[in-house]
Amino acid sequence: MRQVVSSGWVFLAAMILAYGVANLLQSAAAARTTVHHTFDPSLLVRLAGQRTYLLGLGCQVLGFVLAFLAREELPLFLVQASVAAGLGVTAVLGVVFLKWSLPAAEIVLLGLLMVGIAALVKSAQPAHARPLGAAAIAGLTVALLVIGGLGFFAVRLQGALGSVVLGSLAGVGFSAAAIAARPLANESSAAGFFANPLLYLLVVHSLVGQLLLGLAMQRGSTTAAVAAMDAAGAVPAAIVGLLLLGDRIEPGKEWLAGVGFVVTLASVIALTRYAEPQHHHAPAPPPPARRPEPAPLRTAPTTR
To answer: Is the Cβ–Cβ distance between 118 and 95 less than 8 Å?
Structure first.
C-alpha cells in the first residue's frame, strides 16, 4: 500500500528554501544601511526603503507562514532546527550570486548541519499540539520584556560579538513566537484564532526578533548572525515542545533524535566561531565637533 506524504513535510521543505533566500536578501540590504548603535525601531523603516529588503522580508513572511503550517503536525524540535538548513541555502546562493568566499571550516560545518537535520527528520513523529495554559502565556509575555531589555544594552556591542549576541536574542524571540504558533495552528475557527492571546504574542515576538536580526546582520558575518539565531532558537522550542506541547519522537529512534539535535546545535554554534564576514560597513561618520568660538578681540590699551 502506498504511503501518502504528510503535507507538513512539504511545508517544511518549502520553508527551508524561503528562509535561505530571505537571509541572503536581508543581509545584502543590511550591508547598505548605516550601522545603528541604539535599539531603534527606525532601522526597520530605513531597511523597508530598499526593494531588496522588502523582497527578503516577503520571503521571510512566506517562510514564517510555511513554518506555521508545518508546526500543525511536526514537532518544534524538527521545525526550529530545520530553519537552520536555510543557512546552507543562503551560503550557496551567496557564493553563486554575491561571490562570497567560504572558509573550509564553514563548508564542513554546513555539511554537518545537513546531516544533523536529516537525522531529526528521520526521527520525528507528526502529531497535533496540546494547548498552552495561562502560566505559559504569562511566561511568553515576561520573555518578551526580558528580550527587549537585553537587546537595549546589546546594541552597544560591535563586530562578531555583536552579531552573535544580537542574533542569539533574535533567535530566542523567534523561538517564543514558534512556541506560540504551535498550538495556535490547531485553532479551528477564525473567531478563536483572532481572540487567542498567542496570536498577538507571536506577532510582537516576531517583530522584536526581526529588529534584532537586522541589527545583528549589520555587525559582520551573515552566517554568524543567522547561526547564532538558529542555535539560540532551537533549544527553548525543543524543550517546551517535548514537555508541554506533546511533541513526539518515533519509538526506538530517541537516540537518533538526540544525535541529530546535538550535531545540528554544535554545527550552528561552531559556525558563529568560524564564519568570516561577507561584507564590511564603512564606519558611520562621527558627529561634527564643535569649533571653539573665537575669543572676543580686546583693544590694546593706549598710552598717554
So the answer is: no
SS3 label, residue 36: coil
pLDDT over threshold 70, residue 275: no
* Cα end-to-end span (Å), the chain: 122
* 248, β-bridge pairs: 125
Looking at residue 286, the DSSP 8-state letter turns out to be P
Whether 124 and 77 have beta carbons less than 8 Å apart is answered as yes
Residue 21 near residue 93, CB atoms below 8 Å: yes
Q: What does the block give as the cell for 133?
A: 495554559
Contacts 24+ apart (CB under 8 A), 192-198: 197/137, 198/132, 198/137, 198/140
Q: Is 298 exposed, middle or buried (0-12, 13-18, 19+ CB in 10 A)?
A: exposed
Q: Grid coordinates representing 41?
A: 525601531
Specify the 3-state DSSP secondary structure of 123: helix
Do residues 182 and 127 touch, judged by C-beta distance below 8 A?
no
CB atoms within 10 A of CB 2: 4
Q: Are strands 124-125 and 248-249 parallel, antiparallel or unpaired?
A: antiparallel
**Is 0.85 topped by the overall pTM?**
no
Q: What percentage of the chain reaches a pLDDT higher than 90?
A: 26
* 246 burial level (CB within 10 Å; 0-12, 13-18, 19+): middle
Q: The C-alpha cell of 268 is what?
A: 550552528
